[in-house]
Amino acid sequence: MATLLRTPAAARADALVERVAESPALTLAAGREPGTEQASPAAPPPEEPSRALALSDVIAVQSGPGEALIRLAYRIGIPGHAIAAPFRRPQALRVLATVESPNRGDRAAGTALRAGHFLIHGARLPIASFDFSPAAHHAPGVERVLHSFSWLADLAASAPRADGAPVAERIAGQWLHAHRIPGKGPAWDAELAGLRLVAWLVHAPLMLGGHDKSLKSRLLAAIAETAGWLDKRAPREGAGFGQVAAFAGVVAAGLLLPHGKPRRLFGEAGLVKALGDMVGEDGGVLSRCPAAQMDAIRLLTDLLACYEAAEVVPPPALGVMRELLVPPLLALRHGDGALGSWQGQGAISADRVNAVIEASGVRTRPLVNVASWGYSRIKAGDTLLQFDTAPPPRARHARTGCASTLAFELSDGPQRIIVNCGGAALAGGQVPARIGQGLRATAAFSTLVLDNANSTAVLLHGQLGKGVETVEIDRRQIARPGVRDAARIEAAHDGYASRFGLTHQRILTLSGDGTELAGEDILVPVGKSGKRGKIGFALRFHLGRGVEVQLSSDRRGASLLLPDGRLWQFRLGGDRAGADEVTLHAEDSLWVDGDGRPHATEQLVIEGLALRSGGQFSWRLRKTG
Question: Can you give the CATH number for the domain in which 458 is found?
């Protein structure tokens, strides 16, 4: 098996990025049309112990000695106007150009704003009584929408500027009144501050086009103050999307505020390096979060629109990076066009995904083997399998980290059969905050759980502790006479090794026509003989919304009737070596959609006692109608 190691550094990026830099169309070679994936018949070579993309080493920001000197001067604290125009009076503070970003917001959320409510993850929050103060305690998702001013895009999408400007002024006025001290409260998280500054500049006509001259002056002062604060904060921010957003704010301010060239040059160098630190060698963000992947694409689209408005040529790395980010995102789409539920996110809708991809202008295919990002994908016929074959993100990259290693999702056309609960990052809206932590647990995913313990420790505030460090994976085609080759993925993780002396190995084989998924879960002792005694295990298969379950009379199988009438049969295999008292039953579950709404569903659970010396058990899903 090939080993995927979770260590941060640069890896096999040179050849990949050079190819894309030479011809953006070559991103098409990263994947194939759905249904045409081919895997190597031999085990792949071991993965390099490096994950981050060394983008800045491949496509460094080009500059001559003069620009390098300007960048150095700005970095050590010389004001931009003193560098750009040393013998002239500073220009009055204003936004120099109008940005036309292709990104579009949520019309429904914008309509709610005009009606007097924030609409966040399906919950309506009245603006009039909303507490904007730094001391207020809101759910992370609410804080993100509020303090990033992402709601400006929603407002712009819902009404003409003249109708939206009074609403924007009202909310901005309340926010500015509450946040007079820079750096205080969650609003001054570097990520949110960077996103806020970009939103203010992109939607400046909406923010500054009203009749309140006093508010306009305060907003311009806040823009300048935030840009200056980010100048100092961005270089000190840890690697990840937060640093990327912070430097994006710096660059946007450098493009659209007077005397901005020194700031822009300083920001571009930091941004390119930050992007390389955030993204893996195959284009997946190291947080392994599909929503973060979408946020990164949207941010780059907004920023490139700022370059266009300012009539400045952007660094090539920004366009290359956006092209690299799209194929991995497409790999997580099911047959309905929506995303799988991974790393705390709900099933983000097809409309939202389509809007982000369309705005980016990138036309490509799904990436087949997303080795670094860690989501293996197989498509056969109408059936699509997504399989988490990597460790969870490291603590410094985690957004809403989940213990989901070796979980899978399965769909048949537009119908989802096996899912994960999802939605931990949306807790605080319609998903009660008290269950958010539980939605990050291994039991909330379609995989094996030992002794009701998480494969990786789930900590507070989206962080993860000890657990899975290494995942070994092998993918190959299996030739069968007279039928299309089946695709087989074998993966194993060490999350339970230190606690229970067992590793979990899962083998999934999808037939060439997509009508049968065979699974085998194996517990392998770490030592030669393993420990004595038994340990409880549970294999959970969370079912898609609307799937009706009927257990067989012998309690060894179940019929799964999909909402459109398709029928799948689930059956326990005869191979249960090393497992006693195995039972199959149905339990209640829930599934969170892309709008943050929880839906009552069911799950199939195989439970029993496994020998500490190891065991194995098989199961099968077969389409019968």
Answer: 2.70.98.70
